Amino acid sequence: MLGVCYYPEHWDESRWRTDARRMRELGISFVRIGEFAWSRLEPSRGSFTFEWLDRAIDVLHEAGLKVVLGTPTATPPKWLVDECPDIIPYDEQGRPRGFGSRRHYTFSSETWWKESARIVEIVAKRYGTHPGIVGWQTDNEYGCHDTTLSWGPEDLKSFKRWLRLRYQSTDQLNEAWGSVFWSMEMNSFDDVVLPNLTVTEPNPATRLDFWRFHSDQIAAYDKMQCEIIRKHSPGRWITHNFMGFVSDFDHFKVGDNLDLASWDSYPIGFVEKFPFTEEERNRWAETSHPDIAPYHHDLYRAVGKGRFWVMEQQPGPVNWAPWNPVPKPGMVRLWTWEALAHGADVVSYFRWRQAPFAQEQMHAGLNLPGLDEWSPGGKEAMQVSEELAALGALPETSQAPVALVFDYQSYWSTMIQPQGKDFRYEELCFRWYEALRHLGLNVDFVRPGASLDGYPLVVVPCMTEVTEAARAELEKASGVVVIGARTGSRDRNFRIPENLPPGPLGTLTGNRVIQVSSMRPGLSDSVSGAVSGHAIRWREYVETSASVLATFENGDPALTEKGNVLYLACWVDAGLLADVLELATKKADVPTLRVPDTIRIRRRGDLVFAFNYGMEDWTLPEGADPVLGEGVLKPQAVAAWRG
Question: Is the full-model pTM beyond 0.90?
Fold first, then answer.
């Protein structure tokens, strides 16, 4: 259940057999290679040097390792960029983003698609039936480094083509975009311009379509690679390694192409990426926040239709965040076990050996740079390997009691029109997830419109556009449903619904939102009734025919109930959110186990895992007989018991 990322092209060939042997000694079973090797595979057009990769795969296979081969499209070589400059992406200011790092391509370039298909087919034909190859990774980290959106001439050309297919006529386009506003009407699709470099904000409907367009391109590009691989490599699975807190494209649509999802887990680095307070950042600097990695494990398990890997697990300090502390002793082991507890098939560490050169030389590996000597993270990986051997096969993951409906388009919509500077969709979903985990609950992520059967509790933190499929599933849900603010606030064309928000859910909730208020930091509105606390950031003014469970200070509805549906008309502080979700779990008859904010619980089959992110001991629940760890959970420790 353990893997590693390896770059044979970075090391003298005399090291390969020793590396492979030591991987097996560590308990490694899977090795990912090749995802950045285009320049070594094809140093110039049509001149291929596969022999080194042939030998590397053979060495790993002969050592008993299973190889995951990456397509090398994340790093087009210099000769290709020089020959085909139209593949280069552009930033929002209209400046080219050139060669010298990675992901220097736009998904809009027809030339890039042809070149990608060409190299993927050549690699898949050569290695598709090699007995050492068990799976494939397409490209590497779509969207990383803000590379989902591009604003160049190729993007404009492709965007116009996408719009013609979507709208058929400029009359429909102008109607959908509300182009009569500010005289933005167009007489031809050739009149379309990119939604950047405008005097003030571009049309939000145009921006949403531009985001949809790029998201669709990524899914289609990935599908192209998958189809080629499946043609030439039957019986092997395909994945893609997604990133944390990257919501610029719809990962569910890419997941439709794949056999399983994977993601790259850098819990400490993501503390700096997420909009935590400075106090929170300092508190979690050396352990990460207890919900960052689990949030993504559960999300990508959903993207992978029940199956996921951690393709890159942080093994020590990284190099790319503003600050890069050393993880506290025990955290690499804890993160590994936590991924497995959330259902990961494999946890693969990045990387085998720390590189002493280039951009990632400050990024730790399982080995120290240039040496056959375990790093601190490597020693913790070895401990996990020994513990896995002793514990035996882990049980299957079962459906959680809670479904969290997660919608990528709601991220785009609220980025385009936040209305309040600090309204951040990802942060909202994360805080709801955090509150559920404080109650000791397993959580499944669910895409909008997917089945909600069997979930006693369903939470929808925000869903700006409610599709017909999403509405139907929410209406069919037999469990308690909690719906958050801004849900149903826009239709597919980014218009306010004629019946006012929550639009298609107006009858289900019994509510109409008349107006909204975004609140500056430091302002709040108290809420009291069945729950109590404060509304912050966002507050809605609601007319309702539903029962009112809690009100704002002026007596307006804050929390309503109609049948099995609760509607929360605000962004709430931590105390109020805890009250609302605890009330919902009681109504849903879902058992909870409230844990300290440094402790997390996760159930996998009949195994219950506990993780300690804090500085104090925690005693396991009464009757817990550990099969892993001890009855008193030390800081940065893991325990598991049957239950």
Answer: yes
